[in-house]
Amino acid sequence: MRKIAALSISTVLLALTACSSPSNTNTKDTASSSADPKQPIDLRVGRYSLPTWGYPAGDDFANNIWYRHYADKFHLNVIHEWTALQNEYNEKLNIVIASGSIPDIVIEASTNQLETMVKAGMTADLTDVFEEHASDLTKEILTGDGGLAMDSATFDGKLMALPYTTSVIYEPSLLWVRQDWLDKLNLPVPKTIDDVIAVAKAFKEQDPDGNGIDDTGGLAFSNWLFDGITSTTGFFNGYHAYPQSWLKGDDGKITYGSVQPEMKNALAKLREMYQAGLIDPEFGMKDTTKVTEEVSGGKYGISYGRCWNVYMYGTGLEGQPDMVWTPLAAPSADGEDVFANVGTTVVSYYAVNKDYKHPEILVQLLNDYNEMAYGPNRNDPEVKKFFAFEKGQTIVEQGHLSLARTLTTDDATVKSLEYLIEAIEKRDPSKLDQALTETGKYEPSVAYLDGKGTGYMEYHQVKAFKTIVEGYGTDHLIPQAYGGTTETMLNKMGILGDYEREIFTKIIMGAEPIDAFDTFVSEWHKLGGQQILDEINASL
Predict the structure, then answer these.
(1) Residue ranges with strand state E in 314-431
(2) pTM summary value
(3) Is the pLDDT of residue 10 over 60?
(4) Which residues is 42 bridged to in the sheet?
(5) Residue predicted with more confidence, 22 or 145
(6) pLDDT for 490
(7) Rounded to whole angstroms, how far apart are CA atoms 141 and 491?
(8) Angle between helices 442-449 and 456-471 (to 10 degrees)
(9) Distance of alpha carbon 18 from its chain centroid, rounded?
(10) Distant-in-sequence, close-in-space partners of 237: CB < 8 Å, separation ≥ 6
(11) Which one, of 219, 213, 209, lies nearest residue 280 by Cα?
């Protein structure tokens, strides 16, 4: 059977640049190709683009620095068999797959698309190709999550694609608190769930904005409950509950986090807070956009969310010049360590048409990208041209024009964030030479700290990075233990998700008793949840 690992769809609200751990070891010759250098190799691909992508003078989507590099180094003639706008790409690829005629290399296929192609016998077995041609750096990156990403691309013991990996270190749900409000009310930063409740109560009742009007609230979250912004996820994590996550149980079988008993304890506490007026009585009717506007507008000063939340909250800075946010690791309800449920280490997949005569090209392209992006020469000005160019006063990215790419491991990201933090604290930009990501936040952060710039958002996100590194690291993350899609999941998961949020909302608001959670668990299994779990576990 196919080995399926930690994969799910992860929504990223910011374009975060991440990368692999540094490595100078590269035993494979990434420039080598099995092809005769006198004979160019045609490589047909289907690609997506965005109208906002920029190009240096004379370049365009089909004629760019990457394609010219491929021609020089690998003797490749890249042919766009078809193109689509990014929001139309999946639909176009689905049509191509259904036709039975895929390009030589399929770029960024989803889990479902890969499964369909493999079942139809369209894709090449890359097991031996990868072992023979992958550089040490490429292997380090693609196995940096403990092998989960590579396992997800393995069917019946055969590697049928290469994963486009990323880091999930950015995803823990942090507790964001208005530090200026804490200082005004002489309150310490919350360290426990009881402290969170106490702060929410103080912010609701003690006029933290000092305007003499009863216009502030307690804990802010939206009716979606578990999204990245204004979320309840961090609150549930404090009770060792992991909503909307596929978890691996002690018996090795996959379970669903939202039906575990720990969820009930957190719901009971949220219900108490609602009854005490510490949660907006109309939260069930307010979406994320609305609640985010209320937070940035000064109605709320405490909320859970991702490390990038301050980019939304900070939009209210002009009217609240004293606004300062402190990001904290999610406080615990019982003093035990808190773990964060996060998303996937895989963004998508690269696959090769089984009839293509040069499957090693995919591996070589990935080696090439990794060496330029993360290798020892990554800071060389000539190498940097492949990732960005200056257009007037604007830096325009173009790394997305490469045919194969990948992002970082969590360990590498943590190391890079540590270098960034140290560089800022010591005002020592030389530390950035060792960092592989987020280095662009150094200058605006230092300028903000020194009162010479407007790097408010960047500096506050760096504070969040430090919280993640110190509060979670890589050993307090719980990634999704399954990311495929079963037949019943396709038909039922949307309905089950709506049912879940509806019942949880009613329990919090008191429209249903707390024991309605037990009924929900039973009904969730009957309405298709158990069948989904059976299908998942049968595929392992």
Answers:
(1) 325-328, 340-341, 346-352, 388-391, 394-397
(2) 0.81
(3) no
(4) 77
(5) 145
(6) 83
(7) 35
(8) 110
(9) 11
(10) 172, 173, 330, 338, 339, 340, 341
(11) 219
* 402/203 Cα distance (integer angstroms): 49
The pLDDT assigned to 345 comes to 85
Residue with token string 């956009």: 289
pLDDT in tens, 192-230: 999 999 999 999 999 999 999 999 999 999 999 998 999
Q: How far apart are CA 405 and CA 369, in angstroms?
A: 6
pLDDT, position 163: 95
Strand ranges for 156-205 from DSSP E:
158-159, 162-165, 174-178
Q: Is 107 helix (H, G, I), strand (E, B) or coil?
A: strand
Report the candidate in 294, 263, 272 with the shortest Cα–Cα distance to residue 196.
272
Tokens matching residue 345? 């280490």
Contact between 444 and 459 under an 8 Å Cβ cutoff? The reply is yes
Distance between CA atoms of residues 389 and 56, nearest Å: 7
On whether the CB atoms of residues 356 and 61 are closer than 8 A, the answer is: no
Query: CA-CA distance, 507 to 363, in Å (whole number)?
Result: 51
Q: Where are the alpha helices (DSSP H) in 206-309?
A: 233-237, 262-275, 288-296
Q: What is the mean pLDDT of the chain?
A: 90
**Residues in the chain, overall count:** 540
- At residue 147, does pLDDT exceed 90? no
Distance separating alpha carbons of residues 430 and 393, to the nearest angstrom: 24
- Cα–Cα distance for residue pair 377/274, rounded to 1 Å: 55
Task: Tell me whether strands 388-391 and 394-397 are parallel, antiparallel or unpaired.
Answer: antiparallel
Q: Map residue 78 onto helix, strand or coil.
A: strand
370 by Cβ neighbours in 10 Å (0-12 / 13-18 / 19+) ranks as buried
User: Are 175 and 309 within 8 A, CB to CB?
Assistant: no
pLDDT of residue 37 exceeding 90: no
Instruction: Please give the Cα distance from 364 to 32 (Å, whole number).
Output: 8
CA distances from 53 to 59, 166, 227 (A): 11, 22, 28
Write the CB contacts of 369 (distance below 8 Å, at least 6 apart in sequence). Answer: 402, 404, 405, 406
Where in 23-167 does DSSP place strands (E)? 41-49, 76-85, 105-109, 154-155, 158-159, 162-165
Q: What is the CB neighbour count within 10 angstroms for residue 355? A: 10
Read off the DSSP letter of residue 22.
Answer: P
Give residue-wise pLDDT tens across range 409-437.
888 899 999 999 999 999 999 999 888 88
Distances (CA, A) of 483 to 111, 161, 344: 8, 15, 8
Nearest to 143 by CA among 406, 364, 416: 406
